[in-house]
């Protein structure tokens, strides 16, 4: 009888030990997978930053207007952005208050905006910046894509606007 109790006790202890070991191995596998995902996400972000975003059909979020501070959206207003459509010579976006649309012409590194218009909503915040953005678009002569950034400059090479590419997931 003592031998049967010993065997049953040893078997119970072995089952508990195997259950604990299996739990530890499962936890290690989950942690290793999470670390691999974090590493691949970081390397994916680094790879995207190294590859220039395409000028056309990219959502370009305005980050700087002139030499002013970083631009951000006002509460309940669309963030200022532009999308230059492929093949149509048209663009659309938002100025921070109203939706914008117009035409663009592209010749090498030269870029010109024309026939810029938009909706006519009145916003307490954002109108002054939107008017400045519209006036500045009329001065743009050239562009440069630097990784995930778009820089628009005037004829003398002065930087007028800075944008960042935004990708939807």
Automatic annotation (TrEMBL):
Pfam families: META (PF03724). It comes from the Bacteria. Residues 53-164 form the DUF306 domain. Signal peptide: none annotated. This is Heat-shock protein. It comes from Comamonas testosteroni TK102.
């Amino acid at each position: 009888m003592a031998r049967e109790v010993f065997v049953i006790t040893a078997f119970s202890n072995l089952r508990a030990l195997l259950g604990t070991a299996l739990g530890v191995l499962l936890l290690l596998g989950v942690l290793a997978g999470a670390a691999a995902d974090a590493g691949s996400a970081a390397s994916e972000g680094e790879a995207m930053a190294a590859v220039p975003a395409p000028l056309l059909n990219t959502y370009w979020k305005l980050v700087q207007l002139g030499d002013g501070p970083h631009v951000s959206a006002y509460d309940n207003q669309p963030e200022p952005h532009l999308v230059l459509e492929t093949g149509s010579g048209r663009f659309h976006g938002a100025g921070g208050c109203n939706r914008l649309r117009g035409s663009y012409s592209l010749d090498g590194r030269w870029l010109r905006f024309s026939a810029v218009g938009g909706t006519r909503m009145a916003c307490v915040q954002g109108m002054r910046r939107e008017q400045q953005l519209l006036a500045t678009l009329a001065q743009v002569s050239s562009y440069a894509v630097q990784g995930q950034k778009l820089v628009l400059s005037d004829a003398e090479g002065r930087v007028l606007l800075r944008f960042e590419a935004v990708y939807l997931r």
